[in-house]
Every structure is written in C-alpha cells, then in structure tokens.
Amino acid sequence: MDQKKIGLFIATCRKKKGLTQKQLAEKLSVTDKSVSKWERGIHLPDASLYIPLCEILGITISEFFLGEYETEHHEVVPQVLKEDYHKMQRNERWNIALFIISMLSVFWITFIWHLDLGWLKLEDHLAPFMNMYYLSYGYWLAYYLVFKKIKLGYVLMWAIYFILVSGLIAFFGYEWNRMLIHIDFWINSAFTIWGVYNGDIRFRNLLKKKSEE
C-alpha cells in the first residue's frame, strides 16, 4: 500500500465533502493532528476507523486502499487488501490488550519502586529525592500516549525508567540484573518492539535525517 497516495486521496475526498480536518476529526472522535498525519502519509488510520471514514468520505473500502476512485465498480475487495485490513484489525486488538495490561501493571510497578527506593526516606542527605519513586505514576500518561501513537510517550516511559534506575545506581551501584527485575523494563521493551513493528517508531527516518545533515 502507498500511504502517501492514500493520504492525498483522503485529503481530496475530505475537501470534496466540504469538511475541514477538524470537522472530520470530530466525526471520527480523533484529533485533527491524527487526520493531518493520515493526509501526509505518516501513518494510516486505525483499522477500526476504516469503515466509518469511508462512509463519511463516500468511498468504498477498496477505493480507500487503492488511494483513488475506481473506474469500474468492484463488489469484492482484492484479496491482498483484505489481508492487510484484517492484519491491521488484529494488530489493533493486540495493541489494546497490551495497553490494558500496562495500565493495570502500573499499580505493581509503583509498589516495587516504592520498595526499592524506600531507603531514600532513611538517608538524610538523600531526603530531597525521597519522592522520586512517585515518578512511576507517570507511566499511566506515558502508556496512554503510546497507545494514542504519540511518539512522546515512548520518550517519556523510558525517561521515567532511567530516572528511577539512577536512584538505584546511586545507592547500590550498577547492577544489570537489578535493572531487569522491574516489570516496567519489560513493558517498555514490549511497547518499543511493538511500535517498531507497527511503524509508529521509524529508526530509518532518524538515520536518514542524520545522514542528510
């Protein structure tokens, strides 16, 4: 699939319907930034939005995947496009499942960090840092941003993790095994791998930008 072609087609159909990006976003209960990303070919809409988006734009699902109006009417979506559609639906279900697990795990994550960094209360010279482990509650926001496919979420979740780990390193010294016992390390890793698989994180683009500079 050509994401840029599909994005331009979405923009063309939206304008033809006399809708702004904000109006289309409101109809689909998403942000206008998401619509902008679709139209710029950064990523496609969630699979759950294909049908309502096509209904609003007055196009068929096959026209959506093709990125153009069909000269002939086809009742059946091509098999390759069907497979892509169903694959995205499965990915969306996995994404929701991972999100629910991560959000529920924050309770356990905060409990573990409170145990590991509880010694901060007992060290007078470290008193200013005694509330550092409350940063772990920030995972709720980080995981929510990741679920909404906002790249800041990935940066935030790893920033929280490394800040908390720095407390352990400062007191106990560097121990690789200690860093691995925390469930947030594995959840963050799972989200990162999943983000790369879904195309939400693109390291190739970053490398290209660096080479161009």
Please explain how this structure is put together.
This protein is mainly α and 213 residues long. The chain folds into two domains: 3-77, 434 Repressor (Amino-terminal Domain) (Orthogonal Bundle); 80-212. The radius of gyration is 22 Å and the shape is elongated. 67% of the residues lie in helices and 0% in strands. It is built from eleven helices and no strands.
Total of DSSP H or I helical runs spanning 4+ residues: 11
Total strand segments: 0
Approximate strand percentage: under 5%
Radius of gyration: 22 Å
Mean pLDDT: 82
Element string (H = helix, E = strand): HHHHHHHHHHH
The class by helix and strand makeup works out as mainly alpha
Largest sheet: none
Q: Give unreliable regions as ranges.
A: 205-213
Helical percent range?
A: 55-70%
State the distance separating the first and last CA atoms: 29 Å
What coarse outline follows from CA principal-axis ratios? elongated
